[in-house]
Amino acid sequence: MDRCMIAVFVLHLQAMKKKIALVTGGFTGESVISLKSAAVVEKNLDHARYDIFKILVYPGNWYHETSNGDKIPVDLNDFSILLGGERIKFDGIFNILHGSPGEDGKLAGYFDMLGIPYTTCDALTSAITMNKGYTKAIVQDIPELHVAKSMQLFGKQVGQAEKILKNLKLPLFVKPNNGGSSIGMSKVKEASALQEALDKAFHEDSQVLVEEFVSGREFSIGVYKAKGSITVLPATEIISSKEFFDFEAKYVPGVTEEITPGRMSGEEVARVNRIIEKIYQKLNCKGSVRVDYFLEHGSGNFYFIEINTVPGQTETSLITQQVKATGMAIRDFYTLLIEEMLGTGK
Q1: What pLDDT, on the 0 to 100 scale, is given for residue 42?
Q2: Where on the phi/psi map is residue 46: left (φ > 0), alpha (ψ -120 to 50), or beta?
Q3: What SS3 state is found at 96?
Q4: Does residue 144 have a known ligand-binding role?
Q5: Residue of 55, 141, 185, 336 with fewest CB within 10 Å of its CB?
Q6: What is the distance between the alpha carbons of residues 262 and 241, in angstroms, rounded to a whole number?
Q7: Where are the coiled-coil regions (predicted)?
Q8: Catalytic: 267?
Q9: How far is CA 230 from the centre of its chain?
């Protein structure tokens, strides 16, 4: 093959490569985790198959940063960038933006209007699942799934603590109804600590979910759709030295022991997988999501905690551990997600 033919072949390959925007950053405190996730994803994506452009999204400042540090603004009219005189438009979005606007449906709605596919759930599912109370209301009638007794609060009001204590039993979990990484969450053992926990949660969100504590073993499990079928990954059992799986337990090394695959009987694995697949279907999920749950001490009942539709993808994240436990390379996992998004993975 002469040089001319080689050059033509290389140009043909470049033309075939899909342009993928790796979207990260965000409007909340979770942006720090989003950047860490994006670094891992960028390193592990198949660069022979895709041209990857990392796009950072901050309030009033959306840009692509080049290798020499130049910040190229995103044209929000069509989500494109002008690079080296060439207008770059994207074939798809790998969304790794935790919190708002990447996980709450805002970014999904924007991409829907532009007709650009993305790896995560659609706008409606993203908006609903960001609200813990609404999500529980939707999934609670799934066979074999249980939810803790709870109250959803809409704004701070006088006498809330007293009303909660009349309707729910201590200990209680108090958490912002929207949000992630356990920011603003508290475990309340004594009635005297309830108001402080409510204030902390309301500082993060105008809606707060208060639910009774379920004594059980805690697990987190990933699930994704690729090649037209839903695959449930091995669950991770979470044993925290903290009162619960809070921000420190999630992100500070050594605070939590994570066992993948988690210690479950054959019956428990089969039951959990049935429930998880139904959750994924009922919420109309897309791409990769992660579900947190308890297996109650004594009864072994499955208690739904919450769903994360843009799960972390750092080197030590739970999804990463679970994919590796199946023997699959992370690069191949990401390729499956992208091909499913593009409609070429059938």
Answers
A1: 96
A2: beta
A3: coil
A4: no
A5: 141
A6: 17
A7: none
A8: no
A9: 17
Residue 181 annotated to the active site: yes
Residues 6+ apart with CB under 8 A from 156: 198, 199, 202
Q: Is 315 annotated as a binding residue?
A: no
What predicted TM-score, i.e. pTM, was given to this entire model?
0.86
The structure tokens listed for 79 are: 């989500």
- CB < 8 Å & 24+ apart, contacts of 294-298: 294/214, 294/216, 294/217, 294/218, 294/219, 295/216, 295/217, 295/219, 295/264, 295/268, 296/146, 296/214, 296/215, 296/216, 297/215, 297/216, 297/217
Cα 188 to Cα 83, 84, 183, distances in angstroms: 53, 56, 15
Active-site annotation holder among 30, 237, 258, 340: 30
Rounded CA-CA distance 305/214 in Å is 10
Tokens 């891992």 map to which residue? Answer: 40
Going by pLDDT thresholds of 50, 70 and 90, the confidence category of residue 29 is confident
Q: Where are the alpha helices (DSSP H) in 54-193?
A: 106-114, 123-129, 132-139, 160-167
292 is in an annotated binding site: yes
Q: Which residue has the tokens 């709450």?
A: 104
Give the containing element (helix H, strand E) for 190.
Answer: none
- The answer to whether residues 296 and 214 touch, using CB atoms and an 8 Å cutoff, is yes
Confirm whether 218 is a catalytic residue: no
Closest C-alpha among 288, 278, 282, 268 to residue 226: 288
Tokens 């603003």 appear where? 184
- Domains belonging to the chain, first-starting first, are 3-119 (3.40.50.20), 128-147+214-342 (3.30.470.20), 150-212 (3.30.1490.20)
